[in-house]
Design goal:
This protein is α/β, with parallel strands linked by helices and 196 residues long. The protein has a domain of 128 residues: ATPase, nucleotide binding domain (Nucleotidyltransferase, domain 5), CATH 3.30.420.40. A 6-stranded mixed sheet has the order 3-2-1-4-5-10. A 4-stranded mixed sheet has the order 8-7-6-9, with no helix packed on it. A hairpin with a 4-residue loop joins strand 1 and strand 2. Helix 1 crosses helix 2. Keywords: Hydrolase, Protease. This is Putative glycoprotease, peptidase M22 family. One of its GO terms (molecular function) is peptidase activity.
Amino acid sequence: MKKQLIFDVATDTQIVIYAVDSKIITKEIRVGKKDHAAYMIPLIDKVLKENNLTIKQIDQIIVGSGPGSYTGIRVAVMTAKMLSYTNQIDLYEISSLNLLTSGYEGIKTPMIDARNNNYFSASYDDEKVILKEALYAIDDLSKYQNHIVINSDTIKVNLENAQKFYQKVLDVHAFTPKYLRVTEAERNHDTTTNNK
């Protein structure tokens, strides 16, 4: 029996799950704005305590690695790396797009708002990738079916479906979030550097 800790912070919805062999035992969901870092460890502690567990009893950590909120996915990935490395727990990643809509069957096109009519998106037909994960203008997604704009009302997690997409992280130190675009600060820095 594999005890699993799963979490994602790609949107304004922070989700922490404890599962055994991909069967969800406890799920905590918290909606917030740019304050997920302060609640990440307390939420994990709460889920563990509810199940009379310590982090050392967890066999696998699965983290939504983005795309999505720059700060959110950074918080999730850094927390996963820290817990995995310090406690020697196997670490797996999964696309946040896939994890947060894994409870939907058939063709789906999950979307995370990236502002200015742009979305982080992909399209899946069960295990088959129809459209690869990237940043798209809304018009580019019109030909794909079953759009799901991910928010606290539309998140639907089924770990038995999601587990098909887990990827083991072989080098915890080198593991980074899937940002899929540079931040505004990086763009401004590049513009300043090029103008010198």
